[in-house]
Write a structure and sequence with these properties.
It is a single chain. This protein folds into two domains: about 140 residues, 2-Layer Sandwich (Nucleotidyltransferase, domain 5); about 45 residues. About 40% of the residues lie in helices and about 15% in strands. By secondary structure, the chain is an alpha/beta fold. Strands 3-2-1-4-5 form a five-stranded mixed β-sheet. The N and C termini lie far apart (about 55 Å). The chain has eight helices and five strands.
């Protein structure tokens, strides 16, 4: 049987509008903030090679991030901290971080394209784009800035807590991270509402009900 290619809904006609792309990095990790980026590209200064940040090498991501920051009409980062993730849940914290990124732009967009299947409310119209980070250049640009920013934060966290290996797994629940969590217990930056962190808290601090 021939494999069917997935058909995605057509994007709205946004010709002539200032369009911001938005993406997030860090929904799956057990530690640190969820980081978002919003980008408005300049049609007069095209950037070649934009793609889903996960499909790029670190060297290429860093180079593209520099070029995006140089050429974009506007860009901004947003974030939601671990305590906000614990209070709101990861979905709502991600939506909040996206709103913060768009609000921080110094050029107001007329439409927002968000990677994924849902988007928060903005001050302008918005469209969710499934697999947008691989399909839409302005969302690819946002995914690159968000990943570069969050990866840098994980390197900084690694310097403070080298025993966890954050420089390698960036906070995702790999075998190395899970073993370190079990051996050393959570750090303040861990997301306490995530099940592996809750279990580690109960093992290391059995009297702590928080």
């Amino acid at each position: 049987m021939a494999r069917q290619e997935r058909v995605f809904p057509a994007l709205p006609d946004l010709s002539g509008l200032l369009v911001a792309g938005v993406d997030e990095v860090g929904r799956g990790p057990l530690v640190g903030a969820v980081v978002t980026a919003a980008v408005i590209l300049d049609p007069a200064r095209p950037i070649s090679g934009l793609a889903d940040s996960k499909a790029l090498t670190e060297k290429k991501r860093l180079a593209l991030a520099d070029e995006i920051r140089e050429k974009a009409l506007s860009f901004a980062l947003g974030r939601a901290e671990p305590h906000e993730i614990d209070e709101l849940n990861i979905l709502h914290a991600t939506m909040l971080a996206m709103q913060r990124a768009v609000a921080a732009l110094d050029v107001a967009p007329q439409h927002v394209l968000v990677d994924g299947n849902r988007c928060p409310r903005f001050s302008c119209a918005a469209t969710a784009v499934v697999k947008g980070d691989a399909r839409v250049a302005v969302i690819s640009a946002a995914s690159i800035l968000a990943k570069v920013a969050r990866d840098a934060e994980m390197i900084t966290l690694h310097e403070e807590y080298p025993q966890y290996g954050f420089d390698q797994h960036k906070g995702y629940p790999t075998a190395v991270h899970m073993a370190a969590l079990q051996q050393h217990g959570p750090i303040p930056e861990h997301r306490r509402s995530f099940a592996p962190v809750r279990r580690a808290l109960m093992e290391h601090f059995p009297g702590d009900k928080k």
